[in-house]
């Protein structure tokens, strides 16, 4: 029973990582950059939902929508102001800009909401639990796993069926050839940031529902782990982000439960190192075809 | 008036002056070829016309409209399409999806009939419809890349090194397809290292040397020109 308990907790935590990892992997696949500010967009999403629930007395679902809207605008603005001017610049310049953006967001949050941790309110998302025999599953766990599955299905449909989704796949496979099809690459990048940031808001609300402490650094550790998950699954691959995220969550919870609580995070990163040694492209990553 | 008119374009890669004032014309229904050695600036010229590079000066006019400085996403809908060097098919998409992306700028209601048209012209692609493009042979990828470029119904098709890396028998096949396309009324601007083949299908030709046009004229005349024979035809 403890095993099952741990497994379900792992799936839940892993689902949050997976939703965040989707943002990393999509942006990497299409814009070929690592957006290290992504984790902090999660934090902003958490704070916006917190404000909705705590200060503005807005219902839970509407708070989530507000958080998603703000994060979408934030993500698109960051891309347009900070990353777009560097489109032709070396990768390192973009990477450093992204790290700078991460600190900027954390410090803005510190100015606006202060350093004291906020306690995320109880909502329908985390307010109850389900009994299954001797198992006690929190509703946050159920909603998190459910959200993950729905997002995966919708994203798969989006990239395989819609015009914009297909254009995004083209850009990720060959940007130059995509331009020759008449695809507006800048627009696909904007849409990618919009989707990734909206997902970050959902992840933020789910994260705060399961771990209800909110502070300006709330997004950084889950952000780094989700980035790890994206690399683990194969960066650039949407199913890879999903698989990597879920596996990472399960490994983390099992590591903490059976090996050592203190070493839990170290185990996560050790697994990443082993996987990358054996399969440098990640679990579902595709080897880049070098042109000769 | 010419369908495509390039006037004195200069293109730089950083400090390198790659194209030093090229002018060329393509008339409706013509096949025009650009030949020249590696690094002469053939691909750069095509990429500049297609909107992938921005010229420092000079103009590109297509069907009476000035295209200079427009991005490719604005140029393709005007009827100018390019099949790039190295084929550049989308490796993880199926043959059918690649073709559909070729018609990206057209209304989706028109795609199906164009697909049928391509499958008639390239029966091999019909057989491979559901196969992922990265697993096709070089010749099949070249056909796919050409068909994909045709899906936008271009008024002018630019082909960059369509015979590169292909076995001689496939080279013959690709050139007979180019000939067929020409017969069916497609205007073509062809860049080739295989000068012999290019000159034998083209109406007119330009010879590029280190960013300049050194010679131009009727393809037939160039084919028999002593300098051209010596430099590019190996005789």
Largest sheet of chain A: 2 strands, antiparallel
Number of H/I helices of chain B: 10
Order of helices and strands of chain A: HHHHEEEHHHHEHHH
Widest sheet: strand ordering of chain A: 1-4
Helix coverage percent of residues of chain A? over 70%
What does the average pLDDT of chain A come to?
A: 92
Query: Order of SSEs of chain B, N→C?
Result: EEEHEEHEHHHHEHEHEEHH
Please give a quick description of this structure.
Chain A has 292 residues and is mainly α. Helices cover 72% and strands 4% of the residues of chain A.
Task: Provide an overview of this structure.
The complex is a heterodimer of chains A (292) and B (235). Helix content of chain A is 72%, strand content 4%. By secondary structure, chain A is mainly alpha-helical. In chain A, a hairpin with a 2-residue loop joins strand 2 (129-132) and strand 3. Chain A is globular. Chain B has 235 residues and is α/β, with parallel strands linked by helices. Chain B has a domain at 4-87 and 154-232: Rossmann fold (3-Layer(aba) Sandwich). In chain B, 36% of the residues lie in helices and 27% in strands. In chain B, strands 6-7-8-3-9-10 form a six-stranded mixed β-sheet, with helices on both faces. Chain B has a four-stranded antiparallel β-sheet with strand order 2-1-4-5, with helices on one face. In chain B, helix 3 runs parallel beside helix 6. The longest helix of chain B is centred in the last third of the chain and has 16 residues, at 168-183. The chains are: A mainly alpha (292), B alpha/beta (235). The A-B interface holds A 163, 166-167, 169-170, 173-174, 176-185, 286, 289, 291 and B 50-52, 71-73, 75-77, 81-82, 84, 86, 88-93, 97, 100-102, 104-105, 108, 134, 148-149, 152.
């Amino acid at each position: 029973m403890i095993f099952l308990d741990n497994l379900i907790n792992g799936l839940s935590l892993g689902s949050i990582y997976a939703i965040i990892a989707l943002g990393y992997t999509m942006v990497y696949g299409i814009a070929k950059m690592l957006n290290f500010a992504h984790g902090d967009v999660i934090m902003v999403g958490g704070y916006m939902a917190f404000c909705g629930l705590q200060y503005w007395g807005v219902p839970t679902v509407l708070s989530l929508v507000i958080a998603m809207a703000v994060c979408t605008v934030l993500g698109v603005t960051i891309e347009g102001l900070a990353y777009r001017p560097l489109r032709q610049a070396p990768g390192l310049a973009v990477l450093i800009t992204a790290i700078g953006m991460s600190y900027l967001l954390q410090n803005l949050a510190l100015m606006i909401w202060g350093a004291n941790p906020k306690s995320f309110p109880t909502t329908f998302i985390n307010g109850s639990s389900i009994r299954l025999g001797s198992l006690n599953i929190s509703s946050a766990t159920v909603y998190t796993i459910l959200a993950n599955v729905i997002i995966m299905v919708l994203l798969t449909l989006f990239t395989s069926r819609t015009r914009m989704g297909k254009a995004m796949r083209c850009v990720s496979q060959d940007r130059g050839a995509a331009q020759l099809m008449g695809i507006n690459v800048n627009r696909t990048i904007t849409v990618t940031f919009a989707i990734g940031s909206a997902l970050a808001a959902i992840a933020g609300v789910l994260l705060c529902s399961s771990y209800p402490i909110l502070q300006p650094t709330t997004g950084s550790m889950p952000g780094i782990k989700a980035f790890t998950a994206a690399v683990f699954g194969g960066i650039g691959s949407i199913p890879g982000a999903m698989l990597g995220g879920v596996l990472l969550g399960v490994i983390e919870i099992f590591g903490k439960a059976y090996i050592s609580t203190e070493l839990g995070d170290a185990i996560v990163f050790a697994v990443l190192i082993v996987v990358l040694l054996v399969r440098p492209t990640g679990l579902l990553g595709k080897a880049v075809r070098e042109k000769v | 008036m010419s369908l495509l008119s390039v006037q004195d374009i200069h293109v730089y890669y950083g400090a390198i002056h790659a194209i030093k004032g090229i002018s060329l014309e393509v008339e409706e229904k013509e096949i025009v070829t650009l030949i020249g050695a590696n690094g002469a600036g053939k691909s750069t010229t095509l990429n500049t016309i297609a909107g992938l590079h921005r010229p420092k000066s000079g103009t590109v006019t297509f069907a009476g409209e000035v295209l200079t400085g427009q991005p490719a996403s604005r140029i393709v809908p005007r009827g100018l399409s390019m099949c790039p060097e190295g084929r550049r098919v989308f490796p993880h998409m199926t043959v059918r999806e690649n073709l559909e992306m070729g018609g990206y700028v057209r209304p989706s209601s028109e795609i199906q009939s164009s697909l049928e048209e391509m499958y008639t012209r390239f029966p091999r692609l019909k057989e491979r419809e559901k196969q992922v493009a990265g697993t096709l042979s070089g010749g099949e990828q070249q056909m796919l890349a050409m068909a994909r470029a045709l899906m936008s119904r271009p008024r002018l098709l630019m082909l960059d090194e369509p015979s590169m890396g292909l076995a001689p028998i496939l080279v013959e096949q690709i050139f007979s397809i180019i000939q067929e396309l020409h017969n069916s009324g497609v205007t073509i601007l062809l860049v080739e290292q295989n000068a012999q083949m290019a000159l034998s299908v083209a109406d007119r030709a330009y010879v590029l040397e280190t960013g300049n046009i050194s010679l131009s004229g009727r393809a037939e005349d160039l084919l028999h020109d002593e300098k051209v024979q010596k430099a590019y035809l190996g005789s």
